[in-house]
Structure formats: C-alpha cells, structure tokens
Design a protein that fits this description.
With 178 residues, the protein is an all-alpha fold. It contains 5 helices and no strands. It is globular and about 55 Å long. Bound molecules: fe (ii) ion (2 copies). The site of one fe (ii) ion has 6 residues, from helix 2, helix 3 and helix 4. One fe (ii) ion binds next to helix 2, helix 3 and helix 4.
Length: 178
Amino acid sequence: MQARGPLMIEHRLIERMISIIKAALTKIESTQKVDPVFVDTAVDFIRTYADRTHHGKEEDILFRDLGKRDLSAEDQRVMQELIDEHVFGRQTTKALVEANARYRNGDQTALTDITSKLRTITEFYPIHIEKEDKVFFPSCRAYFTDEEDQALLKEFWEFDQKMIHEKYKAVVDGLETE
Ligand SMILES: [Fe+2]
Ligand SMILES: [Fe+2]
C-alpha cells in the first residue's frame, strides 16, 4: 500500500459521516429540533477521527516532510490551502460546540447556528477530500521515492497506534478535573 492509502480509506469513513449529518439536517429542518447528543457524537467524530487522527497524519507527517521538499509553486499553494481548510474546520467545529451548549441551556436561537455549522461541515469536507484525493496526493507522490513513501506509511501506522491511548487519557484527565 502507498502512504496515501490509509488517508484515502479514512476519507471514505468521513464521507459516510457527512451523509449521516446531511440526513440529520433534513430532519432538524422539518422538526425544528435537534438531538444535542447527536451533535456531541458528530463533534467527537470530527475532532478525534477527522481532525486529530486524520488531519494529524496529514499535517504532522505528510505535510511536515513535504515542507522539506522543493515543492512547485502550485503544490505549495494547494498545501497551504489544505492547511487553512483544516483550521477553518476546527473553527467551525468549535462554533458548533458552543451553539450546542447554548441549545442545551434552552436557547432556541442556537438551532440556526447548529444548522448552519453542520451545513458548512457537509459542504466543506467533500471539496477538501476531493482536492486531496484527486489533485494533491497524486501530485505530491512525485516528491518521494518508494522507500520514502513506505517510511511515511510506517509512520502513519505508528501515529494511529497512539490515538486510542491519547483519546482515553484525555477522557480520564477531563473527568478528574470536573
Ligand atoms: Fe486534509
Ligand atoms: Fe484528508
């Protein structure tokens, strides 16, 4: 498997979650109600899986190594765009968490914010994913030899191994400080 393999497999799971969020949006609009626990689940998926585990491998490993290469102006531009989109994703998720907390406290106006942030997520991710799958990953493969690509893949697996431990250590840390 090439290094981009796990990243593309992860994209497929993110797309399934996006479809679920889209279906939830239709329901939220027809009922004018949202299940805050569903929003929690979506946020956990986005933060732990899409951002920490997936964007983590892209930024901390792939982009880090690409930063040491002599990238074409176009590849450099696209990489910066992808990094900026990751930041935008984090900001949108943070705003979603805040709106969900307001909704839980009985603020009905928070529903509009929840809907708009969820919609932003469903619109932004597919475009981001397609840019990586079809444009950036194929073009950045040229900067690595087969050996270097396999070293990236190995580092991806090692990164993944840490994730479950990091996740549940954070859960315990959080509960201890409550
Ligand atoms: Fe990305
Ligand atoms: Fe990605």
